[in-house]
């Protein structure tokens, strides 16, 4: 939501306010590249003021860090710049696909190229997206769809976007459209969200408050389900965030879930295995795999294909770590079967992936013995305060003196 609000603010003529933004390495990457594009962003108490409306050619490459959201959304945004933009990223981001988005921008009249479908990406904008019709796969990254939807209202003519495969991670596209509405822009979508019509429109300045992050909340609630009692406050129970689905899943597994207003309390209880399709909420995979490893019985997790294209190959990273903790796993295609039981502590390499590190940290609460998470600071990508929050919940952490 922070990424989307920042970019919509950049396109709105005037001053917008984004309250309670998520401050992390990923969102800082978006803020930084927008400033390179001439967007004025200033800090106030727990908020960002954004002076948007016009974009300028950057004086240097746009470094997106390891943020796939930054890369994809700003690639489309760059079509609205009069001049050349080159988007680069870190080692992990440079392996993440962007080819389908580049192809769709070409279909809409923007000169754009990538390196074999991967970053770096070069966009030679003309100040406006020419517009027209484009076809895009919906099962590689929903961020491709969101990127086109955000840029298209500033096109020279109306745009029609059609998907030639089923849309996965649908809630993330709905989140994009919801953010656009807050800035005065409306996108027409078919009921199955396979076709979109975007008319020429102007973004309007807005004052928006970013919801609490259900993706981060899932790990805290998982800690409660495995090891004690955790209350998370100020949540939007009607959120369109994909990972809000975690509540229903944990309830189905047998966790004690109590909701009161915007507050959720989860207490430790015997968990049972579950069958899940995570196609629409792939970021829940690491935390759900950890819960399934500690649950009794067999769990089957489906819809994992795209998880191989994240910050790491999350299927391989989680499977390897679970096996290291003595958990029986069987991987067949995009289906992972986990035989839950009694995980044992071990040394976990999270492959530099924030969600893998957080997932094994909460499983470590239920594991016999000590669990060591290497490269622990990788959580800063999305949740810099994670370790401090665990300590506030009473978790005993021993930090390496070299960190």
Could you explain how this protein is built, in words?
This protein has helices at residues 2-11, 25-36, 68-77, 99-107, 142-151, 170-182, 214-227, 246-253, 285-294, 314-324, 354-366, 386-392, and strands at 14-19, 40-44, 47-52, 62-63, 82-88, 111-115, 118-126, 132-136, 159-163, 188-189, 195-198, 207-209, 229-232, 256-260, 263-267, 275-277, 298-302, 328-332, 335-339, 347-348, 372-373. Strand 10 and strand 11 (195-198) form a beta hairpin. The mean pLDDT is 94. The protein starts with a helix and ends in an 11-residue tail after the last helix. A four-stranded mixed beta sheet has the order 2-3-1-12, with helices on one face. The protein is α/β, with parallel strands linked by helices and 403 residues long. The chain folds into two domains: 2-209, Enolpyruvate transferase domain (UDP-n-acetylglucosamine1-carboxyvinyl-transferase, Chain); 214-392, UDP-n-acetylglucosamine1-carboxyvinyl-transferase, Chain (Alpha-beta prism). Helices cover 32% and strands 24% of the residues.
């Amino acid at each position: 939501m922070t990424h989307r609000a920042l970019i919509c603010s950049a396109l709105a003529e005037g001053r917008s306010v984004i309250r309670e933004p998520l401050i992390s390495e990923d969102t800082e990457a978006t803020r930084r590249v927008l400033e390179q594009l001439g967007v004025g962003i200033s800090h106030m108490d727990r908020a960002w003021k954004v002076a948007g409306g016009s974009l300028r050619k950057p004086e240097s490459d746009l470094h997106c860090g390891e943020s796939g959201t930054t890369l994809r959304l700003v690639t489309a945004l760059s079509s609205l710049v009069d001049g050349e933009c080159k988007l680069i990223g870190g080692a992990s981001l440079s392996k993440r696909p962007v080819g389908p988005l580049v192809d769709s921008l070409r279909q809409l009249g923007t000169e754009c190229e990538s390196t074999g479908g991967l970053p770096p990406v070069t966009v030679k904008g003309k100040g406006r997206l020419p517009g027209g019709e484009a076809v895009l796969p919906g099962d590689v990254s929903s961020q491709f769809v969101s990127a086109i939807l955000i840029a298209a209202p500033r096109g020279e003519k109306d745009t029609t976007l059609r998907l030639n495969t089923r849309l996965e991670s649908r809630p993330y596209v709905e989140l994009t459209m919801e953010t656009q509405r807050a800035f005065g822009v409306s996108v027409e979508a078919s009921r199955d969200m396979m076709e979109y019509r975007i008319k020429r429109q102007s973004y309007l300045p807005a004052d928006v408050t970013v919801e609490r992050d259900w993706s981060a909340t899932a790990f805290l609630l998982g800690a409660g389900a495995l090891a004690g009692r955790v209350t998370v406050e100020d949540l939007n129970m009607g959120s369109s965030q994909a990972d809000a689905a975690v509540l229903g899943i944990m309830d189905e597994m047998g966790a004690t879930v109590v909701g009161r207003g915007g507050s959720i309390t989860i207490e430790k209880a015997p968990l049972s295995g579950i069958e899940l399709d995570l196609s629409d909420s792939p970021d829940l995979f690491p935390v759900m795999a950890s819960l399934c490893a500690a649950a009794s019985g067999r769990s089957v997790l489906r819809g994992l294909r795209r998880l191989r294209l994240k910050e790491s190959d999350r299927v391989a990273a989680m499977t390897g770590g679970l096996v290291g903790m003595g958990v029986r796993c069987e991987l067949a295609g995009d289906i992972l079967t986990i035989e839950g039981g009694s995980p044992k502590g071990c040394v976990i390499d999270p492959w530099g992936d924030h969600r893998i590190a957080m997932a094994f940290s909460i499983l470590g609460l239920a594991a016999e013995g000590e669990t060591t998470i290497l490269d622990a600071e990788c959580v800063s990508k999305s949740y810099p305060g994670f370790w401090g929050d665990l300590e506030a919940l009473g978790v005993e952490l021993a930090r390496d003196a070299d960190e």
